């Protein structure tokens, strides 16, 4: 009945060991890695998994009108015991932009180069817009990636891993949705509207300032048709 946390040489007993022999064996949490548990350890001290709370709401962006990060967190409700898997990550980050400098004060500067993030955040954005009653019809723009900085391949954080799928020469789809869709122009900043044919346009990935490059606008569509790893959002 002894179930000791960590590695505890004093948490010792005498009984049948995993190899079938009789002698000293241990009942501490590290015995599974050391392969010196008593034969009944798994039954007497079953693994108790970590339990975490629900995610908090996303924080706001740190600076208005500038690419930044938002964050959400959760807490450990119950620590893992008896060799269970460690707790999962307790914090997540995502790129964002706050579109207003203050109440009734929209950002003055256009967000150029185009700021993009993974299309996976589009569902939450549409859900918020529907709740606010501000859903507007968006559109999608296809681009061909021309150059990509090496910093995109070194994006290992959870909220930047999508950048590793960027490849020169590939076609990507970038969706323009509310609130990035400007109320007056009905366009997203940096979408290449009015650019010349084959003109090189600049983009930057939100969440990793070292991930940027150039692309050529192919054309505008009502809906995106690219696979998920090549589908992005204007910020």
From TrEMBL:
Recite the UniProt keywords alphabetically. Answer: Disulfide bond, Glycoprotein, Signal
What is the protein name for this chain? SBSPO protein
Task: Please indicate if the UniProt record lists DNA repair as a keyword.
Answer: no
Q: Which SUPFAM superfamilies does the record associate with it?
A: TSP-1 type 1 repeat (SSF82895)
- Listed Pfam families: SBSPON_C, TSP1_spondin
**Per the UniProt entry, what species is this protein from, by scientific name?**
Sakesphorus luctuosus
**Gene behind this protein:** Sbspon_2
Q: Which residues form the SMB domain?
A: 1-50
């Amino acid at each position: 009945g002894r179930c000791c946390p960590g590695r505890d040489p004093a948490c010792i007993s005498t009984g049948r060991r995993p190899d079938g022999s009789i002698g000293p064996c241990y009942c501490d949490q590290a015995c599974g890695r050391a392969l010196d548990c008593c034969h009944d350890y798994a039954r007497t001290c079953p693994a108790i998994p970590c339990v975490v709370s629900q995610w908090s709401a996303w924080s706001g962006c740190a600076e208005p009108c500038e690419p930044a990060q938002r964050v959400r967190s959760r807490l450990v409700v119950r620590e893992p015991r008896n060799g269970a898997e460690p707790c999962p990550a307790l914090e997540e980050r995502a790129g964002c932009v706050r579109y207003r400098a203050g109440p009734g004060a929209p950002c003055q500067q256009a967000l150029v180069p185009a700021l993009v993030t993974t299309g996976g955040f589009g569902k939450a954005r549409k859900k918020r817009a529907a709740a606010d009653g501000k859903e507007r019809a968006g559109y999608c723009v296809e681009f061909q990636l021309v150059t990509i900085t090496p910093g995109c391949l070194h994006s290992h954080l959870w909220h930047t891993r999508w950048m590793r799928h960027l490849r020169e020469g590939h076609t990507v789809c970038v969706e323009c949705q509310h609130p990035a869709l400007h109320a007056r122009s009905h366009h997203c900043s940096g979408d290449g509207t009015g650019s010349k044919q084959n003109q090189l346009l600049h983009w930057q990935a939100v969440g990793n300032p070292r991930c940027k490059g150039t692309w050529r606008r192919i054309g505008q569509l009502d809906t995106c048709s690219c696979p998920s790893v090549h589908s992005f959002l204007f910020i």
